[in-house]
Amino acid sequence: MSTATRTIDGTETPVAGVWAIDPSHTTVEFIGRHLVFTKVRGRFTDVSGSVTISDDPNASAVEVTLDAGSLTTGNADRDGHLRSADFFDVESHPQITFKSTNVAWKGSEGSVTGDLTVRGVTKPITLDVELGGVVTDPWGGDRAVFSARGEVNREDWGLTWNMPLEKGGLLVSKNIQFEIETEIVLQK
Cys staple from 169: which of 14, 36, 91, 182, with CB 3.0 to 4.6 Å? Predict the structure, then answer.
């Protein structure tokens, strides 16, 4: 349990304030399809940002920065190709950013809409978000845990490289799912 909670509409939620993303307890993962059927997973290992929780949860704000070069899929050749100009073009666009524009929250679930910038292209996306809980860690820090998920068409951000398959379909799916697990820490 944590003392950094309040009850809104019968749900225990984090108190208003600035909460920093804990990069060592945050995962930003993406899932694409290879050869139409196989799920390939990757993640960005360098993430930073903050969540500003307002008195009115619907007035809250989220800002996140990913180091595009920190992406890993567990395969060095694939990682190199994803970092190249065919995909993320990390040399020219070293960061991926998200800045919320709208929060719609009810109970322990909600959605966060915001501007996602990849390769210098900014487009809106919406994430489905769920509050896992609020707890005080063994060192006295107040933490809130959130999960988020969404899906985008990678071509909207200029990630258009692909190869057609002989019997139909594409080598790499256009639609990419992503899943986020994060702990945020109240800044005192």
Answer: 36
